[in-house]
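In this supplementary section we document a worked example of the pipeline. Step one takes a protein sequence of length 61 as its only input; no multiple sequence alignment statistics are reported here. Step two produces a three-dimensional model, which step three serialises into structure tokens for compact storage. The input and output of this example are shown verbatim.
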Amino acid sequence: MSVRDTSSSRTLKRLASQAVIYSIWRERNNRLHASTSSTSATIASSEMLSSAIGQTNVSTV
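The serialised model returned by step three reads:
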């Protein structure tokens, strides 16, 4: 594994972690301020995370 592969892998892990944290934070804010909540199935689905990750431009090449 080259240095570039290691760096890309580390970047993707950080991005995934940040996406999870963001989705938890967004759910918390919706529950507190909008009095709405998502079902556990919705939260567990990858829809929320894929939208958070999809908004960033990460090149793994």
